[in-house]
Amino acid sequence: MEHTKHIWRAAFLLIAVLTFVIVGRHFLVPKSFGQAGYYRYDALFEHMDKEPRHGAPDACADCHDDIAAAKASGKHAPVQCEVCHDVLSSHIKDGDKFADMRINRNWELCAYCHQRLVGRPALIAQVDIREHLELASGQAIPAEACVQCHDKDAIHHP
Ligand code: HEC
Ligand code: HEC
Ligand code: HEC
Ligand code: HEC
């Protein structure tokens, strides 16, 4: 009997570890985990309860029908208003305006799509920004450079 003592010790240790893992798992794994796959099922409902931040593609047209109509017949037709401005929920709550919508007049907005890049599809008009602005070398790009010539009507209906 003297010789089996170390085996009992090992067995006891193993059982202690297993008990710790099984009990610990019971408390640590979230309730709905695994109910419909390898994820927490309740997370779906938490996301569904959140207010949507973006509007439908024609959400702005409800109140800005003139700008929406101009845009729809111009080259920026495929660019959603929210891309250049901000999400609907930053401006409208319960169907009414509660805060100003962002107006981004920075040239970097335009450069994001129109700066000449080797890998950019040719179907998007591209300019070398510094050349287009006829800047002298070393001269910084003025923040609101593009809207000086491409004004709001030209931007909404290029
Ligand atoms: C390609 C980017 C772009 C898109 C797309 C765009 N806007 Fe604009 N918008 C601008 C910029 C830039 C200005 C500021 C122009 C300026 O100051 O000359 C502006 C100005 C405005 C203004 C202020 C006009 C004023 O009279 O002061 C409103 C309102 C507006 N946009 C609404 C919209 C709506 C609604 C849509 C979608 C139908 C839209 N915009 C789509 C870039 C965009
Ligand atoms: C429920 C009506 C409503 C909707 C929907 C709406 N707006 Fe407006 N918006 C207004 C009102 C009212 C003003 C202030 C008067 C004005 O300039 O026509 C305004 C003003 C603006 C301005 C000028 C800055 C400011 O806040 O005063 C911009 C830019 C603008 N809206 C963009 C948008 C864009 C982009 C969308 C869609 C994502 C949108 N709006 C959706 C009602 C609306
Ligand atoms: C999200 C991408 C995007 C942004 C941001 C954007 N544009 Fe555009 N723009 C387009 C697309 C797409 C077209 C249509 C394809 C084309 O003609 O290049 C276009 C067309 C144009 C055209 C007409 C080009 C032509 O073919 O004659 C001008 C001018 C223009 N944009 C200027 C601007 C200015 C100025 C800004 C910044 C206020 C701006 N764009 C912001 C995507 C964008
Ligand atoms: C000094 C005036 C002026 C300024 C500032 C200016 N543009 Fe232009 N841009 C023009 C003119 C003029 C045209 C040619 C006529 C047109 O397509 O509207 C043009 C054309 C374009 C085109 C179409 C090019 C093509 O190949 O069809 C794009 C894109 C453009 N500009 C983007 C910009 C961007 C981005 C900025 C800011 C970095 C900017 N522009 C600043 C005057 C200007």
Which structural traits does this protein have?
3% strand; single chain; 158 residues; binds heme C; two-stranded antiparallel sheet; elongated; mainly alpha; 3 domains
Describe this structure in words.
There is one protein chain. The protein is mainly alpha-helical. 38% of the residues lie in helices and 3% in strands. It has helices spanning 5-28, 42-48, 65-72, 81-84, 107-114, 129-132, 152-156, and strands spanning 92-93, 96-97. A two-stranded antiparallel sheet has the order 1-2. The longest helix has 24 residues, at 5-28. The model has no long low-confidence stretch (mean pLDDT 95). The structure holds heme C (4 copies). The site of one heme C has 17 residues, from helix 4 and helix 5.
User: How would you sum up the major sheet?
Assistant: 2 strands, antiparallel
Structural class estimated from helices and strands:
mainly alpha
Give the helices and strands as they follow along the chain: HHHHEEHHH
Bound molecules: heme C
Q: Going across the major beta sheet, what is the strand order?
A: 1-2
Strand content: under 5%
Tally of helical segments:
7
Parts with pLDDT < 50 across at least 5 consecutive residues: none
Number of strands: 2
Tally of separate domains: 3
The end-to-end span amounts to 94 Å
Helix proportion range: 25-40%
Residue-averaged pLDDT: 95
Rg, Å, rounded: 30 Å
> Judging from the principal axes of the Cα atoms, what is the shape?
elongated
